[in-house]
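Pasting two entries for a bug report.
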Amino acid sequence: MGKKYAVGVDLGGTKIATGIVDQDGKLLDQVVCDTDAKEGSDAVLERMAQSVKILLERQNAKPEDVLGIGVCSPGPLERETGLVLFAPNLGWKNVYLGPILQEKTGITTYVENDANAAALAEKWFGAGRGVENMVYITVSTGVGSGIIINDRLYAGTHGTAGEVGHIVIEGDGPLCGCGQRGCLESLASGTAIARMAKEALQAGAESVIRDLVEGDLDAISAKVVGEAAKQGDKVAQEVLDKAFYYLSLGVVNVLNLFDPEVVVIGGGVSKLGDMLFTPVIEQVRKKAVAGPREKTRIVPAALGVDAGMLGACSLVLDVTKTQSF
């Protein structure tokens, strides 16, 4: 049997990143182009197909040499049918991404949401490499996750497993975007951090946050709050303490439910480093059940801007299970 490849496409609101890996897990090549979503889904899908064609030509490969195309897509979506139900950043509604791209390329195509794809990327290429049971948690605008059980992505009965961001932490807590109250996402996401800081300043608290955003409270972000905390700002530190306490409760629930070998935390908020990991690990060591409490590793994600594209490649490898890494 000749050399085989997997292709991954990270479909974003502004950029499309497409990569190709071999069976040894080596990233051979990649291309990036603008999404230009305003031109419509047909044009975007054609650009995706052309990106795949370019990579195959560079490798002197044919469609039959490719195990599959994985696509990391905004959602919500139907994994089994490849249907993107709604992607506001793209202006898409009910677009059969998988079947259309498969028809254009002649290559079996798999579609997955961002968090699950990132979990697979960390499993195959990053902080979870060689681990059979892991949970990936992304803390950014929202809170999402992907679950790997016995070396495979766990999607659940309806394809919605891994909604760690919607574990209810406080029954009467703040309203979440999902319509419920007190979800982890509404308490520990970057959006929640910015909201809590803004509320504190609106209530009259003195903070360097106000100076960092030049008085524009709508410009407050988790990054700004983190910068203020690094400067010793009391209000910023109190906000982060609260958010990361809630995050630790979410991680405790994950450990108690799944007993993973490792929990990988990524996303923009994770870039705060020890400011996040130290309090979360401290609380987990106090509150999780025996076993996971002492042994489960909680580590930062290892992959950067290529996580989505590598996750899409990993989706193919996870489905076909023919790779040698």
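Entry 2 (this is the one that rendered wrong in the viewer):
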Amino acid sequence: MLELRDDLRLALDRVAFARHVGIEPDEWQAELLREDTRRVLLNCSRQSGKSTLAALIALHRALYYPESLVLILAPAMRQSVEAFGKVLAAYRALGRPVPPRSEQKMSLELDNGSRIVSLPGTEKTVRGYSGAALLIVDEAARVEDTLYFAIRPMLAVSGGELMMLSTPYGKRGVFFEEWTRGPEHSWRRFEIPATECPRISPEFLEEERRALPARVYRQEYLCQFEENEDAVFSYEDVKRAITPEVLPVFVPGGLGSAD
């Protein structure tokens, strides 16, 4: 059990909290841990530590803010289990400072009334939850848009935080849209390519650059949104083809209308 003075220090300093778990944050991770921001987008390379950081933030919220509901969403069951495993590992490393009421494979309920629940990211799985203090969407570039539209109302009353983290996956979906076109004041954005991750060596990146198709390498390691594999026309070509001077089909006054 943590001493009271240490417990207060860790409650106020999430960087110290991470170090107490045994994780030395990278510079960008420490910056995020020290910030108080309600909307965060993490566009990060593979193996950059984004999921570990999200797990630490989720656990800190549950431990030090009683009655908090924290939801961790991922595209599939396997990814949900993996994401929640990082939360449990940190919780156990701390010696379970707040005793658990229930500790399961994909959920943790604490004696202070807080809950952390990890779910496969579909609209149907999240509809029954409300009043979330923190929503974390892992691999956000790969979740369905309908999930994003379903979770945002959960924050309406609670005023909770939303964190979306991912490696890019084509020029599509809400993660791409929010990263490229979301209002600047609405999101705190972090872009972490593999070249800025101290655990990934230049030698490994050079090997990957030679082994992978260029677009795959840029997407997986350099945080670049590449064209979708099945795209007939590029994203930029489609954007250039849209003009307010031409009316859509089947609207009053447009091509194919009865007027």
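Dev reply: Rendering is fixed now. As a check, the viewer should reflect this: Residues 230-241, 254-259 have pLDDT under 50 and may be disordered.
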